Amino acid sequence: MKIICFHLNQVGDLAFSLPALKCIRDGIPGAHITSVVRPGMVEVMASTGLVDDILSRKSGLNLNKLELIRRISAYKPDLALVFSQSAECAALAWLSRAPRRVGFIDTSLGGFLTSRVEFHHPPSTENNLRLIESIGYDITCRGYSGLLRPTAEQIERADRLLQAHGIGPDDPIAALSPGTSGRRSVKEWTDEGFAAVGCHLSKLGIRTLILGTEPAYNIVKECSEILDLSGKTNLGEVTAVLARCKLLIAVDSGILHLCAATGTSVIGLYGPSNPNITGPQGDGHIVLTSGAECSPCVRTECSLARKCMTELSAADVISAVDSILAREVNR
Fold first, then answer.
1. Percentage of residues of the chain with pLDDT beyond 70
2. 170 CB-side CA count, 13 A
3. Within a 10 A sphere around the Cβ of 310, how many other Cβ atoms?
4. Which domains, and CATH codes, for the chain?
5. How far apart, in whole angstroms, are the C-alpha atoms of residue 150 and residue 143?
6. Intra-chain end-to-end CA distance of the chain, in Å
7. Quick one: how far is CA 18 from the chain centroid?
8. What is the pTM of this model?
9. 271 and 184 in contact (C-beta within 8 Å)?
């Protein structure tokens, strides 16, 4: 059986689709699964070992898109799973000529699908598992923990990067991820808070890294012991670094979910988003909130000075750090 899957664009949303892929793999061990993802996600998908082929989908109409259409049509899939609600993915599923094309009820150009299931905002693992149930497969996996395993090549590249900054293979490391995607800056914590946590880790002899896309000048200015690798890694290398970390401290973001999917412990800082829906999956994580009465609001803008995030204290985060490190020592 040939199955083609069309994924969302964001890193966290891609992580939410991994349990669905695991269910398919468990249900039909001999199935040939092809995933269609954005170029930056190819290395992440490669580290799952859940799919047989990965196709890159660039934005806009270009030669890449024409070649993609040719390849998915030649693939002749039996089933198309559309995790994305975009019109483009629905159209690509139709162009694949798969006799069954399954997606969500509010998908743009949903007429290109043969069946649609209910969707509850925001994107989540449970939504994707609903797709799996609708096509008759058992739910054998409900979380992404442990489904990301960096490849040997990714580990080698990450080790070279760390060694270039004086971090040896046996040196303990931890990571901070302060950033979010553009429209979601309302979820960010304070630079001062991240700096305080980084300095605390440094005093414990743990090298602290910042992972993300945008340089974190203000955090490093507050704590010069922190190494800012923002913008210096691709997602494959980030995955390998996270798998090696003792823990990650992060706001609700794609990197948080990448880390939890490797099995590394996460301290998730939540405010406007709901950790019951988009919190880190698996055991050993700690979710912190400020307790603001307006949280979670699930909004992308705030008229209350983001107090759900700014009132979250560095002392509480440091206490959570110590708790995870103590647990590791006592294993």
1. 98
2. 0
3. 17
4. 2-135 (3.40.50.2000), 152-329 (3.40.50.2000)
5. 18
6. 44
7. 10
8. 0.93
9. no
